Amino acid sequence: MSQPIEFHPSFAERSKAAVNDAHLRQSFRGAMDFLQAKRRAQFPDAAALETLRDLGADIRRYALANLPALLEQLEAQLTANGVKVHWAETPDEANAIVLDIARRHDATRMVKGKSMVSEEVGLNHAMAAAGIEALETDMGEYIVQLAGEGPSHIIMPAIHKTKQQIAELFAAKLPGVSYTDNVDELIRIGREVLRKKFAAADIGLSGVNFAVAETGTLYLVENEGNGRMCTTVPRVHIAITGIEKVVAKLDHVVPLNSLLPRSATGQPVETYQNFISRPRQPDELDGPDEVHLILLDNGRTQAYADVQLRATLQCIRCGACMNHCPVYARIGGHAYGTTYPGPIGAIISPHLLGLADTYPLAFASTLCGACAEVCPVRIPIPDILIRLRNEAQARPGTTAASLRGSGAARTAGISAIWRVWSLIYSRLGLYRLTSWFMSRGRALSPTEQGAWTKSRTPLVPAPKRLRDLLRERQR
Amino acid sequence: MNARTNILARLRAAPAGVPVPAPDVAAWHAAAGDMDSATRIERFRANIAAAHAEVHDTDIDSWPALLCGIAAQKGVRKLLVGKDAPEAAALAARAGGDLQLVRYEKPASEWRSEFFDDIDAALTPARSALADTGSLILWPDARAPRLMSLVPPLHFVLLDAASIHTDLYAAMTAERWADAMPTNALVISGPSKTADIQQTLAYGAHGPREVIVLLIGGAQA
Amino acid sequence: MGSDTQRTRRYPPKPADAYLFATCLVDQFAPQAGLDTVRLLEREGIAVHFPEEQTCCGQPAYSSGYPDEARAVARRQLELFTQPWPVVVPSGSCAAMMRHHYPKLFANDPALLAKAVALSDRIFELTEFLVHVVGFRREDCGAPCTVALHTSCQARREMGVAETSGALLADLAAVTVAVQARAEECCGFGGTFAVRQPDISAAMVTDKVASLKESGAQSVVSADCGCLFNILGRAAKQDELAGRRQASLPGEHIASFLWRRTGERHEQ
Asked: Under an 8 A CB cutoff, do B207 and A225 touch?
């Protein structure tokens, strides 16, 4: 259960299939154009945006710099507030904690708010195996769960689907529902089905956007109200989050949430900002009797152990990096094969799943930097991608190899090519000779240049090098 | 406890990295500047309207009549009000005819099906509000429990215009949130919505389809 | 990724001497762009010095995950620019490597790091140098034409010079710069990305060629040869497959374009 993602077929095959799927390409292109324009409109003042990004990055960096102490403070505050805190090193441990709570309450029905960490640990499968129905209630998540899929985007899970596909899905899967592609009507149908589920649920599960150490507060944002349903209606609320999601002070959520919705979907603010600090108190008439928080590691401490890779943990899961990624726009989220797709997925997944299974993602980037340009907390994603490429090809047993799966991409052939390349370009005599031969022998340049000439005409050296032309000119 | 010990030990074993000074949110907020009260009211109005909520101007004496009028127009028959809530008393004097006041007296778990299926609207006060995002702040308590602003399809909110802050930072600082957080603090910006189907915005996802703000003292300002 | 913005970089006055770091692609595959760079600078009264020992900035290995191999090559280039003159690079991508990545590459060697940092301060992308240091203004002597501009991702995002190529073109009276969809999107080159992810790269460059053509431009100019080879190579392949004998999307380096437009005949 700990590795819910299977790497079959390979990333290369999945991305090729996705690139050639015209419908998918169009869905993503349209969505990306729309989201980019909406984000742009939210930040008309470039200088103000840069100041805000500086502050957002500082808040996240400050939290990480003090992470162990803040986690202890968070735990102490939450405990004092009556919230039970659990720690899990692995997905299996996290699922076991949830199951244990469920068993104590004889629970069989769980409603879920949107939580990428629950996807990461494969919670739905673990619950199903134990006879517990774990139902997604975010409309997008509900749609992909109904279709037997996973989310293709961390904020907009059903972004790959057209309304016609959703209409067919509802008509096929929901008793008594006939085909309609009217969006208001589809949402109304989802609302009616899920209301009954909320009312009948034993457990509500949610993620956490930020956990505030100062006050012991779980901060959750959403638009639909399903998150509030999950955290208020059932008698037990279980929140699950990565250990990196802590912030030091309550007021730190203000700049972060000024960045989050505007970067994510280009909306000024979410409908609901939900600050949960304790379970239902004796005089209160609603709210859960028990609130639990599960703090998950699952490889995050590996990222934390490296000063450069630690920046990966600054992420606030807005999805702007994928919304602006030209590779994501071409292949969509499923092709990545990981819970978190896109640029952030390429840099976080190696810690969750190991480099051996995930290094192709680090190479699936032109390093164009569009992700870093929009990242609200200034994660230097291209630099981290380069670092992961280094790690993936590091010689085993060297100090360069410090991650789980380091060296997995190393091949003798490619390494030899780069050694020869390095030799030629670091010795002028060799370079002169090689480039002279290439120019003189240009007629012999191969017309088939591997993958390059599948889509392009061959590269042919000029008859004379610049150094030749300059020398001639001086005569 | 083993997982806890291991995780914290690994974090503590990691190199320190570059020291990061404490972020200065106050300075950032101060640099953005403040708004006067009239601007706050105006911005609140515009922003919450953009988020698809309605704002009606009224005053401390006439809001019950206004609410009853709107309720009648919207076909509201059962209106949920808080037990012992002052606004419930004010409204009780006025309501009648087709509008029935239902008091939130029992724990939600004891009347869930009626609550979810039969209640048309709820009335709660707002603690305060935010100009920059057009948001309402609610601190639910026994007199206005959490689900009142979530389950009924229509949410009436009573708001004093004098309580509108510039933004969330101003509100949390002025109201000293960090000193004593409630069980559940809420910042609500319009009716529930979703754009999960082909980026098409639809209102009334799982929470209210409509949010109607009765703004007291906003017209005079 | 380090990045500049024009508000943070301070520019020196126009110098009497400057180095040219031509890049390996220009030396071997596009020498005309290098020659035209020299001519443009000389016409402005700048003596251009081309250290013969230069080869490559090291970026291909650096971005492919071979830092040791990149370092060996980069180290050679560190030694070449002994006088305190600016180093002009007719490529945003290679300029960004030398300006932003050299200090990272040599971070663990204090002596080389000091050299890398000192060099980094003197690295200028060509169009950046023309606009901010030279104050380039020459009369346009060419016939009216419409061109599209492709700015490389490194020029745009690492060097922070998204505007300088456009500013140079905007100064040319008879040149219209066509508006293209998604101008800021990557062309799909990405060094070894083009061969490592051939299908994704092909999809990206196909889209780029389409939006350049749809802009109504007669040709494309760019200050980066890597992007240019990718874009022009794709367009030429399409022509080949369609049996077109004339290039549907010709293009050239901005140095050559500027030199032609501003009166090559005036060369001393």
From this structure: yes
Nearest chain B residue (CA) to A155: B196
Q: Let me know: does A458 contact A449? Beta carbons within 8 Å.
A: yes
Cβ count within 10 A of residue C43: 18
* φ, ψ of residue C78 in degrees (nearest 5): -60, -30
- Interface residue of A420, A452, A466 to substitute, partner C, most C CBs within 10 Å: A466
- List, as ranges, residues 415-444 from A with C-beta within 8 Å of C: 415, 418-419, 421-422, 424-426, 428, 431, 435, 438-439
Sheet arrangement for strand C219-222: C175-177, C145-150, C219-222, C251-253
Tokens of A49: 């945006």
- CATH fold of B35-216: Rossmann fold (3.40.50)
Considering the domain delimited by C140-266, tell me its CATH architecture.
3-Layer(aba) Sandwich (3.40)
Cβ <8 Å between A426 and C186: no
Look at A271 and B51 and tell me if their CB atoms are within 8 Å: yes
* A120, A125, A130, A132: CA torsion to nearest 10: 90
Question: Which residues of chain A fall short of a pLDDT of 50?
Answer: 1-8
Whole-angstrom distance, CA of residue B94 vs CA of residue B91 = 5
What CA–CA distance (Å, rounded) separates C69 from C59? 10
Question: What are the distances in angstroms from CA A231 to CA A74, A116, B185, C53, C267?
Answer: 19, 16, 13, 67, 76
Share of chain C above pLDDT 70, in %: 96
Q: Which residues of C touch A16 (CB under 8 A)?
A: 199
Q: Cα–chain-centroid distance for residue A79?
A: 30
Ordered by start, the domain boundaries in chain A are 18-27+44-301, 418-474
The CA distance from C243 to A301, in Å, is 57
CB burial string B17-53: b at 16+ within 10 A, e below: eeebeebebeebbeebeebeeeebbbbbbebbeebbb
B10 contact residues in A (CB cutoff 8 A): 297, 301, 304-305
Distance of alpha carbon C202 from alpha carbon A459, whole angstroms: 16
Q: Is the interface score ipTM higher than 0.95?
A: yes
CATH class of A18-27+44-301: alpha beta
Q: Are A202 and A67 in contact (CB under 8 A)?
A: no
Cβ of C204 within 8 Å of Cβ of A330? The answer is yes
Q: Where are the domains of chain B?
A: 35-216
pLDDT digits (tens, 9 = 90+) for A286-295: 999 999 999 9
The domain ranges of chain C are 17-133, 140-266
Beta bridge partners of B80: B102, B122
Question: Where is A302: in which H helix or E strand?
Answer: helix A300-304
pLDDT one-digit tens code per residue, B135-179: 999 999 999 999 999 999 999 999 999 999 999 999 999 999 999
Give the model confidence (pLDDT) of C77-128 as tens digits.
Answer: 999 999 999 999 999 999 999 999 999 999 999 999 999 999 999 999 999 9
Q: Which of C64, C80, C249 to mutate to test the interface with A (most CBs of A within 10 A)?
A: C64
Nearest to C99 by CA among C84, C70, C78, C83: C78
Shortest distance between the Cα of C173 and any Cα of chain A, in A, equals 30
Q: How far is CA C99 from CA B65, C4, C223, in A?
A: 70, 10, 17
Indicate yes or no: CB of C66 within 8 angstroms of CB of A393. yes
Distance CA A402, CA A305 (A): 10
pLDDT score for B1: 57
Do residues A197 and A203 make contact, with C-beta atoms less than 8 angstroms apart?
no
Look up residue C252 and give its amino acid: E
Question: Which chains would you list as touching C if contact means 3+ CB atom pairs under 8 Å?
Answer: A
Burial class (CB in 10 A: 0-12, 13-18, 19+), C263: middle
- Which helix or strand (DSSP H or E) is residue B2 part of? helix B2-13
